[in-house]
Amino acid sequence: MRSIAIIAAKEMRDGLRNRWVIATTALLAALALTLAFMGAAPTGSVKVSALNVTIVSLSSLSIFLVPLIALLLSYDAIVGEAERGTLSLLLAYPVRRWQVVIGKFAGHLGILTLATVVGYGAAGLALAFAGGGDPEALAAFALMVASSAMLGGVFIAIGYLVSALVRDRGAAGGVAIGVWLLFVLLYDMALLGALVADRGKTITAGAVNVLILINPADAYRVLNLTASQSVGGYAGVAGLGVRAGLTPGLLIGTLIVWIVAPLAGAVAAFARRPV
Hints:
Low-confidence stretches: 42-47, 235-243
Mean pLDDT: 82
Helix content: over 70%
Strand content: under 5%
Order of helices and strands: HHHHHHHHHHHHHH
């Protein structure tokens, strides 16, 4: 555990030195505050919660932004160090390969979690002090922040798997962009096209649930839009998750599986990788 903590702390320091933490936090905070106050401007006249509207907006934004940031953080974590020669130096110390992967993952997850909590938390606190949040809305906002960090963890783990499998940094970057396009854009377009073409003839509700859980971005979206009745009401999907059997526990468990499985694959691939 001590070796993992040392490696994680080193990754955090490198993130601070490279301005990753500051830049990511500033970006998330700026976007969150913009959505919070511009998107919630009409809520006073229609008597809806500004914080609930912000949760819907930030959930949609996070699906695009958080996975991209996570992949940019992690895609060259292994292959990049191998090209620079620093990986061989690191492995010369009394540290196991799995500890290197887990330590680096913990450091990058810490960077993204810190940026998410501070960036999104700034918007939540601003709205709360402005009187725009009730206890249920605040709980839903906290869930959105926590699940955003989990979504980032999913794509950091996928980035590590990519970095452990490819042989050069350029290929890792190309695969990472392809992964982002697949999960964030192409998958939902293909799923929507299949549902429209099928017209409910062969694709059952249970199959749709499975297809949603296959994509961590979709699991994240459904979790944040259905976990709270008030948020679901503004999003037009109130009760949808419960009726479909996609409970918050199941969706959170899916995100955890999506973190553990690629990370385990990265550990196994790195164990066989020549350095």
